[in-house]
Amino acid sequence: MDQHSGTSAAAALTRPPRLTPGARVAVVATSGPVPPGTLESGLEVLRGWDLDPVVMPHVLDEHPAFGHLAGTDEARAGDLERAWCDPAVSAVICARGGYGAQRMVDLVDWAAIRAAGPKVFVGYSDVTALHEAFAVRTGLSTLHGPMPATAAFLKDTAAQESLRATLFEPESVMTLGPGAGGGALLPGRASGITLGGCVSLLAAGLGTPHARPSARGGLLLIEDVGEEAYRLDRILTQLLRSGWLDGVAGVGLGSWEDCGPYEEVRALLLDRLSGLGVPVAEKLGFGHGPGSPTVPLGLPAVLDADAGTLTLNVPALS
Predict the structure, then answer these.
(1) CA distances (Å), 45 to each of 24, 148, 292, 317, in order?
(2) How far is CA 220 from CA 25, 160, 280, 310, in A?
(3) What is the DSSP string of 105-119?
(4) Which one, 57, 58, 93, 161, has the greatest CB density within 10 A?
(5) One of 58, 144, 210, 288 is an active-site residue; which one?
(6) Is 65 exposed, middle or buried (0-12, 13-18, 19+ CB in 10 A)?
(7) 223 in active site
(8) 243-277 confidence digits (pLDDT tens)
């Protein structure tokens, strides 16, 4: 187990450099199969930002036995590792989510990735497992942001602009929220280090070597998609019973697409989170919903639940 195992949520992580025009960005498939046409349209968006996207060799692979995976675990891990260790690459962007990151995370040479130095890493949803691994194994901050081989990215100019601004002009996107209807589920202000992502993936990572042992001292940012209320109940209860949420400084809630009526989801979140005794802001807008902003993970910020905002203390990228 390497020196970064057990990274605390209370410790700020190292920011990678911002991108400059002409920067080479590698696109990798870490999870589900990638639609070729959607990928090409997404690459055109990146080229329109004056980036030089390169597609890693196995991005369009299909797993020989399991249709829910983009190629074998070894191929997906190898692409991520080679992309990161290429000195000409400034950023690694996941093509899409789905499922599969957990299967390949143990196959990555994290010591080699750490030795290659800080770079921008972008993704969300299933990629939450890799955000945790980057934090624990490399001490690097990452970006919870949209992925180019998804129909949602291609249709969502607001999400596109948030990512572009974060990559090139991070000072311009220091505050997240308030979203439509956003505000306090539970009132107050809190300071801490951002962490989180898809809450079902955080629960699935409990007890594994590539996830933090606790959210203590952190500002936990969570969202999910397609999880009915009883399953969200199970996920949050597991995080509570495990002690993973003990000492968390505050909680920011994103979108809950296809999780049922929001009134029911809201009541459940209030029921499960109120016992923490910390500020909880709702409808911050990040996640699987439209207009989702890019959120840096691993950086100091202030959560103002009453105002419905999350404000970074430093720009996402150096």
Answers:
(1) 14, 8, 17, 21
(2) 28, 24, 9, 11
(3) GGGS-HHHHHHH---
(4) 93
(5) 288
(6) exposed
(7) yes
(8) 999 999 999 999 999 999 999 999 999 999 999 99
Nearest to 316 by CA among 165, 214, 191, 153: 165
Please count the residues of the chain. Answer: 318
- Per the omega criterion (within 30 degrees of 0), is the bond before 178 cis? yes
Give the pTM: 0.96
> What string of DSSP letters covers 6-31?
T--TTSPPBPPPPP-TT-EEEEE--S
Which residues, 6 or more positions from 226, have their beta carbon under 8 angstroms from its beta carbon?
Answer: 257, 258, 259
Encode pLDDT of 170-212 as tens digits. 999 999 988 778 899 999 999 999 999 999 999 999 999 999 9
Closest-CA residue to 128 (of 300, 297, 317)? 297
Tell me whether residue 58 is one of the annotated catalytic residues. Answer: no
CB 301 within 8 A of CB 266: no
8: annotated active-site residue: no
Residue 101, both tokens: 């990151």
Residues 7, 110 contacting (CB under 8 angstroms): no
- For residue 186, report the phi and psi dihedrals to the nearest 5 degrees: -140, 130
- The active-site residue, picked from 63, 131, 132, 223, is 223
Please pick, among 125, 162, 200, 292, the residue that the annotation labels catalytic.
125
